[in-house]
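Example complex used in Figure S2.
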Amino acid sequence: MNDQTKVDRSALKVVGTRPIRPDGADKVMGRANFGADLRLPGMLEGRVKRSPHAHARILGIDTTKARALPGVKAIVTAADFPDLEAVAAEIGEGAATLRDIGRNILARDKVLYVGHPVAAVAATSIEIAAQALAVIEVNYEVLPHVIDVEAAMAPDAPVLHADMFTKGVKPTPIKASNIAQKIGLSRGDAAAAFADPTLAEVVVQGRYVTAPVHQGYLEPNACVASAGSDGQYTLWVSTQGHFVVRTLCSRLLHIPLSDLRVIAAEIGGGFGAKTTVYLEPLALALSRQCGRPVRMVMSRAEVFESTGPTSGGVTEVKLAAKRDGTITAAEVLMKYQAGAFAGSSVNNAGMCALASYDVANIAITGYDVVSNRPKCAAYRAPGSPLSAFAIESAIDELALELGMDPIDLRLKNIVRSGSQTVYGATLRDIAFAETLEAIKSHPHWRAPLPANTGRGVALGFWFNGGYESSAAVHIAEDGTATVVTGSPDIGGSRASMAMMAAETIGLPYERVRAIVADTQAIGYTFVTGGSRVTFATGMAVVQASQKVIEDLKRRAALTWACDISKVEWRDGAAHCTESAKPQQALGLKAIAGKAAQTGGPIGAEVSLNAQGQSPGFAVHVCDIEVDPETGRSTVVRYTAAQDVGRAIHPSYVEGQMQGGAAQGIGWALNEAYLYDARGAMLNPGFLDYRMPVASDLPMIDTIMIEVAPNPRHPYGAKGVGEAPIVPPLAACANAVSHAINRRMRELPLAPPSVLAALQSDQ
Amino acid sequence: MNDQTKVDRSALKVVGTRPIRPDGADKVMGRANFGADLRLPGMLEGRVKRSPHAHARILGIDTTKARALPGVKAIVTAADFPDLEAVAAEIGEGAATLRDIGRNILARDKVLYVGHPVAAVAATSIEIAAQALAVIEVNYEVLPHVIDVEAAMAPDAPVLHADMFTKGVKPTPIKASNIAQKIGLSRGDAAAAFADPTLAEVVVQGRYVTAPVHQGYLEPNACVASAGSDGQYTLWVSTQGHFVVRTLCSRLLHIPLSDLRVIAAEIGGGFGAKTTVYLEPLALALSRQCGRPVRMVMSRAEVFESTGPTSGGVTEVKLAAKRDGTITAAEVLMKYQAGAFAGSSVNNAGMCALASYDVANIAITGYDVVSNRPKCAAYRAPGSPLSAFAIESAIDELALELGMDPIDLRLKNIVRSGSQTVYGATLRDIAFAETLEAIKSHPHWRAPLPANTGRGVALGFWFNGGYESSAAVHIAEDGTATVVTGSPDIGGSRASMAMMAAETIGLPYERVRAIVADTQAIGYTFVTGGSRVTFATGMAVVQASQKVIEDLKRRAALTWACDISKVEWRDGAAHCTESAKPQQALGLKAIAGKAAQTGGPIGAEVSLNAQGQSPGFAVHVCDIEVDPETGRSTVVRYTAAQDVGRAIHPSYVEGQMQGGAAQGIGWALNEAYLYDARGAMLNPGFLDYRMPVASDLPMIDTIMIEVAPNPRHPYGAKGVGEAPIVPPLAACANAVSHAINRRMRELPLAPPSVLAALQSDQ
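Predicted assembly (1524 residues):
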């Protein structure tokens, strides 16, 4: 671990240290309670009946035999859910999304992919539930299906939604198609620039293809729902955002938010995909029907076949540059898979595509395309890795064409503080150049390359989010503190939240513990995602801590009978600055022990909509050795640098950088959904869907750039979780391309593809 | 139900109505989760090895054989707990209590009652745990024991604690005894008044005896403890106060408060007894030892034999009065059982004894006495029923002696607003006289009495508590609200808290739900007890609701771009009073839906130490028919009147009045601990320990007196839970005494005692 820390940390006692993760031991020991670990008296097991067809009309569902089975307590189909078209009117914006979620969790008229749920059963055992599924009779009219994105865009493609007319096109098309939306982003005049030989001295172009990949969380989706006899519901669920689950279930089932308490279980990974609902509304509906708690847990195959992978797609890039390396124009065309319902990551991908570069003339076009695959879900920096793969590959091609060092070419063109992005934001307080320079001056960049080995570099950008967070800080009678948030802890946020509270209040880290509270116990908090938690929830924690300090000062002033303006708080104690008063300090523990006498328990809760995030910039370099006989690529060295603002808990920042790199490497080299002719996934298991494991990867070296702490966060934090998955796709492709001296423009770079390239003429 | 409501309720929309209890249906349907209902993966079953002797020295405990049993995972004895003498020094006040709790949950050197725990075992099944208990070998030196309170005070009694020297006596005694403390309270000169024939025109005296009775909660003590690998603990427990459980376990086990999360399960009754710990520290210690969750549940016999009954005791009363009925002097001598460790209810009993009467000369003496019985615990208005039984019986005797109507005699002597009690408080805003008048004018009081039937009247006083409470109010995006408190819901507080929030904010009751949060999720909250929750936690709820309203007004002002001083909140909506601005209202739902845009989620948390409770005064009248052949007493009519301030949810106030009366009737007529010669309880089960059931009692009529709302509570609430258990003992005894024309001065008034009295000459 290589800290290039220029931040003055002398004043900080806790922030920037690396204490032990409080929830770590239980997770390692198998004692933490995940989504499937709860048992309630009378609890039933729920299972889902899924479509065997990629595209079919549902002519009828007969549950008579299933209901007659002893032990079967409840069965739901779409008929048991409210008509979301009606809800849509009330909700306005986002209504289509909600309607689609409703149709995705339980098919209404058509099944749109193999694995699409058609019914759910709750029974006294998993075995009986499975029996019930087997005897539910669904009468299908099988329809032609389409899997590939460009095939789905063809005029004669089977159309999934008869009521879908491409948005973003004027005049609105009169024929339904699989193109949900066309987007465009532009600046300057790209067409004119490409036509101007003084600007377009060099032009490169390419067509880059990525496969949809699954988020690959280890814990399958799981929940337990309990509908009370009093109209109140409780839901335990493995999720990145129990408040969002509450909102969605509330709308899908017409339950007031105050009647639905959602408790976040420990979560075994989510990576963006556990920000929506699949089983949860079914479990609630089943429990409501039979009045008993219902547990639902997916198998690994169900996770693959019916929860969101990320978009795959085709990105065409054309770049123009002057001979000195100034990039003058860029055209980007994206065709991205949304899965069965609208909503690929094409919007984000468009905004991120050229966010790293200051290019005067830009034209970006994108298509959001549905096909007979599971509905896509968010995956770490949704969209950005896809467009970055294309742009960073094209930049590499341009560097070769120009004969320039690929880092120098990038340094010449990257955004700086003050740059305005094509999507409108003005960048402030960024240390992107320093991050690139750190890689340039790193021994890795200068190390000699053995035979059959190539080196690739690539950049990555992510917005980083703010949004709503709430936090409370409670001081116990013994002077220890509890931090309460609504952010499920995925990357170590219990530790980092406790650290920021400890730093602010002046307590040792060990005397502060953080918990994740349920939706009713703490204020609304948006998902753990968008690289927002350390920033936004951290800000709420610090503000709550500051309110606690104000209260502690008030108690001290009361105790000393002095004016509160004469009380200072430092080093975890109140100090009286009034000359006539005794100068001794009154520590937190002493004040806490007498709280009842000075007004009652000490604590504060803060809710906010955090503003002022700073985007994330990552630069990765990797060396890949290609076995010329098999085409197998092995990552032999990998270094990741990132503008992290200030690292609250450096080990977790490094962990995010390493985790993002590892996932990106898997995306680049091996992962893909393979389909048979019927549109069924061929590899819905970890043996055949090949994610990298520890033995596949070298130690990933990390360089945290801490020269530009975010001035809009109390401790300078910037989001760090997503940027690191953006560069690896292109970094790996560039490395393999150099290793085999052939440009690889389609992922994954699986051995057969690489071998084919090696055996080609190019 | 008979409301004598003089309060103007016209302005109130929710407070004072009787909505359905939200947790009621689940409790009735058997779906609510109580202390024993949780299952965790790997959970063990814990059981306690208990003393078969009433008094013995522990010479050794050999757990070798038990540890060798397959399936036994952990065993603890007192040796596994820290030396509380050391902790005591740190804690100061209350240290002795803590040390005693430590010795009570697990005997250290001596066992002091049959059922006193000596070891605890956690095993993979209850059966294996039971086997393990059987092979734990304890070597005892059996000592002489003493059960009766007066026997325990005798100079030659076996002494339980060699280090206990009667407190409250000067000079401090040099010989250890079973008298833990002597207390005294006085006013004027009682001795001189008794000696003055103009003041003591009439003198009555008597010796009144009560039996210790159990709180009789239906749910046996139960908990599940889970010690994490990271030094953090979670405890699920049926309790009246999870914060108090946290404090006690933290001190008994040396766990920082921030490391111990206590979650209150639903509670099947507590009545004061579930405000301390028995199994909880054992379960935590067992879980810590083996790293697995441990569940512990008592049997009914264990509940009787080793959890606190209330004190029993002897109260001697002497009253002097003038012929006109003015009571001029009172002497009270109390000898109360504490059980095996100091701490009977004698202090409270002394303060309550004459709190209902304005008597110029008072001398009260009390003794807190240990004996070989389970350590007493609080029971609804602890102490007050014992001294009230004596005083209210003596007043009845005085009325007979004077030939006065017992209500008129009381009306002549009771305290009024402005009276100062013997313990120092000045009474304010009380409606005691109105309560007595209500009974006097009630048809019951004038109804003719059939043969063999007597009528008794008695008064009851209780302090009513304030103490620390916390509450948060969260507004969800759909405009519904959640109220968060730390008060376990025993008497319907989820409903009453939601009602007060709904009233304050201007929401319909159905759009507000209340939850009971765990110790880490909400600020410190003292027990559900002391008749404090509706008052103190309600005050916190109202204050949090008011903070929410301030925030809602701020959002509205922001939306309208007007000054917040021009925004009024009424009927659940903001109204702009600025003449230039549109006058339309902005409702809660509209503001909540846009909260993200106006600063983030809406909510507030408040903690306070509530001041300004108002004591409770109850007047009960009952008619009892005595079967002259068997001595069996049957309550044929019962009316309870009470000064309730203002009833937030009248049905629950009536429920408290009825429940208190029912428990007091059981205490008066049937309940008692019966001991064999070895000091073992003979009747540790509901078949032999005879609590009244529904078929034993008539409908208990209630009269809520609402003429004096408490001006120090936003909705005028006074505590109501405890006062109603105070009068029934004397009311029943007076009724039986009148029915059989013989004074009954010892409880319970079981058929054999009454028959014996009937057959006596008196």
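The longest helix of chain A spans residues 533-560. The CA atoms of residues 178 and 370 of chain A lie 5 Å apart.
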